[in-house]
Write a structure and sequence with these properties.
This protein is α+β, with helices and mostly antiparallel strands. It is built from nine helices and four strands. It has two domains: 51 residues, no CATH class; 129 residues, no CATH class. A four-stranded mixed β-sheet has the order 1-4-2-3. Helix 7 links the parallel strand 2 and strand 3.
Amino acid sequence: MGKIDCKTLKKLYTKEKKSAANIAKIFDCSENKINFWLKRHKIPKRSISEAMYIKNNPEGDPFKLKSPKNITDAQLFGLGIGLYWGEGTKASKNTVRLGNSDAKLLKVFIAFLIRFFGIKKEDLRFHLHIFTDMKIEDAKRYWIRELNISAEQIYKPFVSITGSLGTYRRKSEYGVMTVYYGNTKLKNKLVHLIEQQISNKPL
């Protein structure tokens, strides 16, 4: 086949988020040819991370930000943002993470994610950090009961030697649980929301 026009290529690649390989199948040509016309039409190629995100989320973002509708919503929203600001692990580039020994605190953060981003609770994953003098199964049962999650959502526990963390150990009867949600855009959105709150800008 000959030339692939710019408008069609932009629609398929930029708007519909199809890969060069998928577009090549549509036009029954090589992927190299599609890349050639992308370059010729000066259509920016996606980065590897962007391409992987689209591949892992073919239906689009698995979340959608919802603004608080009432005072109760506003309180939960503020708590959620505050918890991630103070307790969340922001160094991770593609995962929302928050760990604590307080089950009530984690329940608030989980409720925040579900209420304002529409994520599915079953998509959350958890990592338990316990100590050698703790019974793993007792600790797991505690967190499963308190957070109302399944055993399959919990990664293999990480065990530390008792006493290695001093007073921190005494505050953690059932260890420390970290909640994970793997989504780069959601992680970046939370960081952006924190920045908005700091500058007092509207959502």
